[in-house]
Amino acid sequence: MRIEKVHIKGFRNYDDAVVEFGEKTLVFGPNDSGKTNLLYALRVLFDPNLSAKDFELTASDFNCATNPERVEITATLCDIHEKCLVSVFGGKLKDGRTDISYVCERDGNYAFFAGNEIDGVERVQSRFYIKHLVLEYVDSTRDAARFLKRSQAALLEAARNVRNEDDAHDDEASIRGIQDSLESLNKGISGLHYIADALKSVNDEMVRISALNEGREARLVAGNTDAGKLLDNLQLAYLSDDAPLTFGGEGRSNQLFFSTWLSQRSIRKPVEKVSIVVIEEPEAHLHPQQQRALAKYLSGCIDGQVILTTHSPQVVEQFTSDALVMTGSEGKPTCSGSDLVGEIEALGYRLNPIVAEVFFSRGVFLVEGPSEVVFFRALAEAVGVDLNRENLSILSVDGVGFKPYVFCCKALGIPWVLRTDNDVFKVPKREQYRLAGVMRAYNIAESLGLDSVEPLWSAVKESLVWNGGPAVPVEIVAAVKGLRDALEHAGIFLSDRDLEYDLIASDLRGVLVSYYDAEDSEELYDAMTARKAERMYAFIGKNADELGCLAESGFCEPLSMLKRLVSASPHDD
Questions:
Q1: What is the pLDDT of residue 300?
Q2: CA-to-CA dists, residue 104 to 65, 70, 478, angstroms
Q3: 320, CA 20 to 30 Å: which among 122, 332, 348, 356?
Q4: Which of 360, 258, 366, 281 has the alpha carbon at shortest distance from 313?
Q5: 187, 222, 255: which is the final residue of a domain?
Q6: Can you state the angle between helices 250-268 and 144-161, rounded to 10 degrees?
Q7: Domain identity same for 289 and 239
């Protein structure tokens, strides 16, 4: 059994959204985009720890933008073959499917419904299925220390109950041996002269206080003198070369939390219960390598349906999911389903924590390489665009393969712009050259189905190849201006030639000449493009304050457009 989808209407930041789930689902998105609200909608239907009071929603639970009269949450369950669920749902099943709904009115009255797509749904007596179908929820504010203290006894008791007779008999013999060892240990301690002397006066005073204390004595003992009680009060410790480690580190406590929790699930394994596991932000307090390790671990060690939320690019990279959900912020719709998975998978080897940062961004500026990233980050700061505050990302595609990144942003509903070099390439085996950059930009537009660009392309495509040297003829520059304007309107920006050439031709030229000590344009270009990422980083380190002179130049147009695209998105109240 698994949850196939959930339809949420009027609940918190969800006006009317359908979210699809898989066997292993990863939910991501920026802050305040509704990840926790999505999980709470599922908890209303399936979390046994919620009480009747939790079902009486307050005014703040109703979507403030649409102000609905009711909240509706409907989960569609599929692949229901477990005997306990088939029995409990009975006639409400059809082909292994059923719907469960929760409806709450403004006055707080609520009801649950169940049924199937063919026969319809009917009102039912609360959550009649909750003993057999439960959601195990691990929240982001989990208290690892309290959980470990609470779970230790349960973990030991569960393991004790699943022993076979031989193991239980062996344990009883071992406990008797431990008891004998304890008694011997405590006798040895009492025989130490300084301990005996210290307690003699205590015992003498006890006798003087009451005759009932005669024949008894106070002793210093190592722990509990009863082996059974000693075992019931063990303290969980983590050892390194037999030396106990203090659980002061939140990261290690987080790892131990999941290890203990998963062990409990593994030992108990109730046969008449189906669980859906929901985990919020497992990466808490872990450094990147351990975040990746935990994400990979959680991908494979939990049977059944798992829904996991995250803010971590490392988790996005490593969690093996067959479904993705990106919660929408600022009025954008929540994205899920096979199309989204397909576009993410198309990134293939390109997906890494830097690329995964895009999933949490409000807008993305795609550039060719690291030198562009260094320059445009510095330029943004110089002209007053705070990328971190605006939650914008500048991402290198490490070449000219923009399409997978563009399609990914489009699938996620994330505004994007790009800037690519206006390369001039020689035609093989001919004394001809072509505007490869313009062709590349058009191919991106064509793949996006931008019909407005097509007539402009048809008018100029025959003139993009010319005889002679690499210098672009003036008439070709004029001919493609209309096409370039249309491409920029779509967010596809072309340099005049490339970043370094354009900078040499800009108001920054004097600063470049002084820094590189090269007056001639070609010498200056050669100096800038030799190990260009390193050179750009060093130059920006010394001259970041000088970039303000480019505030009104074409360099800022992609940044300005991205800000407009992001601010034009509808906002929630």
A1: 81
A2: 18, 6, 63
A3: 332
A4: 360
A5: 255
A6: 30
A7: no
